[in-house]
Amino acid sequence: MSDGPVANGLRRDLLGDQVVHVRDAFRGEAGREPDGIWVAPGRVNLIGDHTDHNDGFVLPLAIAQHVVAAVARRDDGWIRVRSLQESAPATFELRGIGPSEPGGWAGYVAGVAWTLGQVGVAIGGFDMVLDGGVRPGAGLASSAAVGCATALALADLFDAGLSREDLARAARRGEVEIVGVPCGIMDQMAAMCCREGSAMFLDTRSLEMEHLPLALDDLTLLVVDVGTPRRLVEGSYARRLVDCKTAARELGVPALRDAALADLGRLADETIGRRARHVVTENQRVLEVASFLRRDRTAEIGPMLRVSHASLRDDFEVSTPELDAAVEACIKGGALGARMTGAGFGGCAIALVARDAVPEVGRRVSALPSAGSGPPRWFAVTPAQGARRVA
Ligand code: GLA
User: Whose CA is closest to 225, among 374, 35, 55, 382?
Assistant: First the structure.
């Protein structure tokens, strides 16, 4: 399928089709109409990676790839979830939910139901059909999109009376405690709270946010999916968390967000020192990029994106040869800046490209060697709307 001049093969925004499809599938599965249909987007992070688990700053934007969930209430304590991407549905009792129970993809749904129960929402059970339009394992926060679509649906159906921030926290807690992934809050906050046309500058300590219009004008923001499944993540991500906590403890600060570059010389271990340097300098870069966006000077953020990539590659060591090659190809093709985005260990890079340089960047990216599942795929994104009810 062609997506026009700014992509080499990923499907475009198919939200309307997804909604029709999910509704039909729900009727087939449950033999009744859903009570409603909710959607939550994936995200890319413009800058600020591995800062959220240090109470720092991030600057993500939602993208127009969605998880779509058709849901209807039950009152018998059972949950039945079908994913259009999985062969078998998952059926389980609310009271049976616990760490890794149920396992696999259904844990992201179960985790939210469990967490909402923990904070006093009376969930009676539900039937759900999910369509995952955010490619799993690509680093585009597909699991947060599942969690947030579920959270919003359950909040509406069971009158939770919770804010979007509360629902983001619930989705994160489900992921941490039931699925067992020790993530930060960026992805869930992006899926719940981003606004169309803006990137979200977020303080992950206070959850204070500022929606900064992302004036792309004659610029294009490209996503390059290098096609390697994220080699994760859990183990390596968790080790980075431990490194950062060790650094904060040694420096005597609550989190690395509170450390200054000048303090880092006190860290004895060289590796821990580099991890901390990434976090401290990345926080600084987020503040700088935010100040450029506030002044409508998006075209000038390129150098900060490049330095961010180098820091993630050399100091935090979460890039991969494929991501490095993608970033390099984008820069050689004329991108103003490029960096890996998200947790790393595979996944996606982003590139900020003047519109007339897009064909050359695309040509160079498409010419990169295949990393297993064909050459890297690339596509343009614009800032999309966060989670919402669509029917
Ligand atoms: C993953 C996590 C986020 C964040 C990023 C890295 O996406 O879910 O909380 O830590 O990695 O910035």
Answer: 374
